[in-house]
From TrEMBL, chain A:
Domain Spore germination GerAC-like C-terminal span(s) in chain numbering: 209-377
One GO CC term, this protein: membrane
Family: Belongs to the GerABKC lipoprotein family.
Record InterPro entries: GerAC_N, Spore_GerAC-like, Spore_GerAC-like_C, Spore_GerAC_C_sf
GO biological process, one term: spore germination
Membrane topology of the entry: Lipid-anchor
Organism, as annotated: Ureibacillus manganicus DSM 26584
Native organism taxonomy: Bacteria, Bacillati, Bacillota, Bacilli, Bacillales
Gene3D superfamilies, alphabetized: Nutrient germinant receptor protein C, domain 1 (6.20.190.10), Nutrient germinant receptor protein C, domain 3 (3.30.300.210)
Keywords of this entry: Germination, Lipoprotein, Membrane, Palmitate, Signal
Descriptive protein name: Uncharacterized protein
UniProtKB/TrEMBL annotation, chain B:
Gene Ontology biological process terms, A to Z: spore germination
Organism lineage string: Bacteria, Bacillati, Bacillota, Bacilli, Bacillales
Localization per Swiss-Prot or TrEMBL: Membrane
InterPro entries named in the record: Spore_GerAB
Family: Belongs to the amino acid-polyamine-organocation (APC) superfamily. Spore germination protein (SGP) (TC 2.A.3.9) family.
Keyword Membrane assigned: yes
Gene Ontology, cellular component aspect: membrane
Transmembrane segments: 15-38, 44-63, 75-101, 121-138, 145-170, 190-208, 220-243, 274-299, 311-330, 342-360
Protein name per its UniProtKB record: Uncharacterized protein
Organism annotation: Ureibacillus manganicus DSM 26584
Lipid bilayer topology: Multi-pass membrane protein
UniProt entry keywords in alphabetical sequence: Germination, Membrane, Transmembrane, Transmembrane helix, Transport
Any one Pfam family match given in the protein's UniProt record, by short name: Spore_permease
Length: 390, 366
């Protein structure tokens, strides 16, 4: 009898174990996967587009039995992001769950306005459910539109955009920017690059170039595209490599960069007349040639190297010129370099680096480029004829 | 607990583990922020080193004094060295401090749980549940507590190693630069607050009584402090290297946020902080357990005839009420700072008093 009583008591205790205040069933959650922030018609308001995923649709899609897309986009306008987000609850049947946000897109209009970007990013760092690894990108045009592309090889647009931002192999892109990295930059008021993407058509998104965000003005001041973007990429990226087209004997060739090493040194530390030397050590391989050069020949090999060296010199000079003259923004990390390695010099110049005296724009930047073409690819040449192809 | 078990049931190793477990606690989560505030870039390591050395010496002195009176309770040897009334006053002050610290710990674990896990569960419920588990732990035998701490120890160490190793991929050495740019005042302040986070070794005053032959205990105690210093050192460097100084000083729980930064591939492991939350709960649990047990230990010294259960049941509601007193995060932070500072000064005075009289009167084997 005593034993029975004990068992009875335990069964009653079991009931207590089922309680959980913060329980939200998986089926009741609406996972927010991507967020796009646009300006609204009213000046002080923003338009927030969230991409919610529907877990059940996501799983059935593979079997072909799914009906409708695996995601749902909701757009709401409001004054602050969290306010807008709560407004969204009025429209969803589920509670939005931000734990797995992959990408945040800011429209160009927002990033170009002073301090707005900084203000909106606060939430993504403060909110407890947010990870610090959320990717950030600038959308050229309307950011919300990007979330509605229908990619053909991914199930969800955000997933597609996220992968796109993380893919390496093209010099016009930069390594993905995470929200956690941004906080340090914003606190130190350093400038940084941001990826810019646009909607190409209803099925694809295109990586446009690199936005230049000025940490002192707290706004995006410019955009680098094409060769300029490549130049910047060569100067600041280490993991992200890609190809460069060079001209050898009048024929186009492409060299793939395998490894880029860079090192900054300060040559002259007079604040009004800074001189930096950026040493680049680049290892490449011949990826494609239209001509029929004998790449096994040492002279030809030198020609390729010289061509690549000139090309790199050209694009980096272009990029640096634009940054110094037009944008007056240091995303080359020269300021942080001074701060880290020459703290005394930095103390003198830090208030006049990107504004005021503009020591960054006045400083002289030299390149010391070492190129080595390590591998020729698998073949020597495709055709042997020495004719001119049109 | 049988009366025969009151002395000599724990080993030197247990003391070492208990010291480490008691030092690594809620302050470990917060201290990178405090130190980053006072120092520039990665310079805080100097402060941790200085603070660590001070803590090692200090703990050695305390352990040395306490181990010169083998199997004697704190109140006995304190009465012998100072006077009986002084010993009673010191013990009472320690009891008050430990009650406040336990309440603070209970509240902080709730804050942490609220910050990262629950939104709607009332603070009272989380606190109460945590406190009930602690009470359950304390009401058993003291040997059981030490055994529990020893069992948890490998888990805690592995957890902390995971915490330190996982973000290495995001570690940027540039964040530690420029070196040696902190002024003297900054170093001083940072070193002082580092010593403040290591004050958990104050338990040595009371627990060495339980060691059978406390000959090697001072050495082991210092080893325990050293393990804690080592982990603090690593956690600080990882925080600065991953976040940079400016971010570290702006995060409330930097040591916890590093686990949020790491993303292992695969949807589930995208949130590796979940696993580390368990580790942190264990860490705070062991710290709270020790503090609560110290209250009981000291109370029983003062009131020889009191029953252990009565003390526990009398104290628990008080702790619970105290832990509910602070209304917001600012007050909690202030309470934490006050507790550290007051213990710092108090422990310093006690150590000096005991040290001087010990030099004069010498140890007592009876």
């Amino acid at each position: 009898m005593k034993c029975l009583k004990k068992v009875f008591f335990m069964v009653i205790l079991l009931l207590l174990l089922t309680g959980c205040w913060d329980k939200v069933e998986l089926e009741d959650r609406a996972f927010v996967y991507g967020i796009a922030i646009d300006t609204a018609e009213k000046q002080s308001e923003i338009k927030l587009t969230s991409q919610l995923i529907v877990p059940s649709q996501l799983s059935t899609l593979g079997g072909g039995g799914g009906s409708g897309p695996a995601f749902r986009n909701l757009s709401v306008t409001g004054e602050t992001i969290i306010d807008t987000n709560r407004e969204m609850i009025k429209q969803t049947s589920r509670v939005p769950d931000p734990t797995h946000i992959k990408v945040i897109l800011f429209s160009e209009d927002i990033v170009k306005q002073p301090t707005l970007f900084k203000e909106y990013i606060d939430l993504f760092l403060r909110e407890k459910d947010m990870r610090r690894g959320i990717l950030i990108a600038v959308a050229s045009g309307e950011a919300g539109e990007l979330l509605s592309v229908e990619p053909q090889h991914e199930k969800i647009p955000t997933q597609y955009i996220g992968r796109l931002l993380e893919t390496k192999g093209n010099l016009e892109t930069i390594e993905s920017i995470r929200v956690g990295d941004i906080q340090e930059k914003l606190l130190e008021r350093e400038s940084f690059p941001l990826p810019v993407i646009e909607k190409l058509d209803s099925k694809s998104v295109n990586y446009v170039g690199i936005a230049i965000y000025n940490g002192k003005k707290d706004q995006m001041v410019g955009l680098l595209k094409g060769d300029e973007a490549k130049g910047l990429s060569v100067l600041i990226e280490e993991k992200n490599t890609g190809t460069l087209n060079i001209n050898v004997e009048g024929k186009s060739s492409t060299v793939e960069l395998l490894k880029i090493n860079h090192k900054i040194t300060l040559v002259n530390n007079n604040p009004n007349n800074f001189e930096f030397k950026i040493s680049l050590k680049i290892i490449g391989t011949i990826a494609e040639q239209f001509g029929n050069q004998d790449v096994m020949n040492a002279e030809v090999h030198d020609k390729f190297q010289l061509g690549l060296e000139q090309k790199i010199h050209e694009i980096t000079t272009k990029a640096v010129e634009k940054l110094q003259k037009d944008y007056k923004t240091d995303v080359l990390e020269l300021g942080p370099y001074l701060h880290h390695y020459h703290p005394k010099v930095w103390e003198q110049t830090k208030d006049n680096w990107e504004f005021g005296e503009n020591n960054f724009s006045k400083s002289k930047i030299n390149f010391d480029i070492h190129v080595m073409i390590e591998r020729p690819g698998t073949i020597n040449k495709t055709s042997d004829r020495n004719e001119n192809r049109q | 607990m049988k009366p025969t078990q009151t002395h000599g049931f724990i080993s030197d190793r247990d003391i070492m583990i208990a010291v480490t477990s008691n030092i690594i606690g809620i302050t470990t989560l917060i201290f990178p922020r405090v130190i980053a505030q006072y120092t520039s870039a990665g310079d805080g390591w100097i402060a941790i080193l200085i603070g660590g050395i001070v803590a090692c010496i200090w703990s050695w002195v305390i352990a040395k004094i306490a181990s010169s009176f083998p199997n004697q309770s704190f109140i006995t040897y304190a009465s012998y060295l100072l006077t009986k009334p002084m010993a009673v006053i010191i013990t009472t002050l320690f009891i008050i401090h430990f009650i406040l610290v336990t309440a603070y710990q209970v509240r902080e674990v709730t804050v942490l749980a609220h910050q990262y896990l629950f939104d709607k569960t009332p603070i009272e419920v989380v606190s109460l549940l945590f406190l009930l588990v602690v009470v359950y732990g304390v009401s058993g035998s003291r040997a059981g507590i030490f055994r529990l701490i020893v069992i948890f120890f490998p888990t805690v160490i592995v957890g902390l190693l995971i915490l330190v190793v996982m973000p290495l991929g995001l570690f940027k050495t540039e964040n530690l630069l420029p070196t040696f740019q902190t002024d003297f005042q900054g170093h001083m302040k940072a070193s002082l607050s580092t010593v403040g986070t290591f004050l958990g070794f104050s338990m040595l005053l009371f627990y060495i009584e339980l060691v059978k032959e406390p000959k090697n205990t001072p050495k082991m105690a210092v080893k325990g402090v050293m393990i804690a210093v080592l982990f603090s050192f690593l956690i600080f460097l990882i925080c600065i290297g991953t976040f940079g100084n400016a971010t570290t000083r702006n995060l409330f729980f930097p040591a916890f946020d590093i686990s949020k930064t790491v993303e292992l591939p695969g949807g589930f492991f995208e949130r590796s902080d979940v696993i580390l939350f368990v580790i942190w709960t264990i860490i705070i649990f062991t710290t709270t357990l020790i503090f609560f047990d110290l209250i009981v230990l000291l109370m029983m010294m003062l009131f020889k005839n009191a029953k252990k259960m009565n003390i526990i049941l009398g104290i628990s509601p008080l702790i619970f009420l105290l832990s509910m007193l602070p209304v917001n995060y600012i007050e909690i932070t202030n309470v934490g700072r006050f507790l550290t500072n007051s213990l710092f000064i108090f422990l310093l005075i006690v150590t000096i008093l005991l040290g001087i009289t010990y030099k004069v009167k010498g140890g007592n084997q009876n």
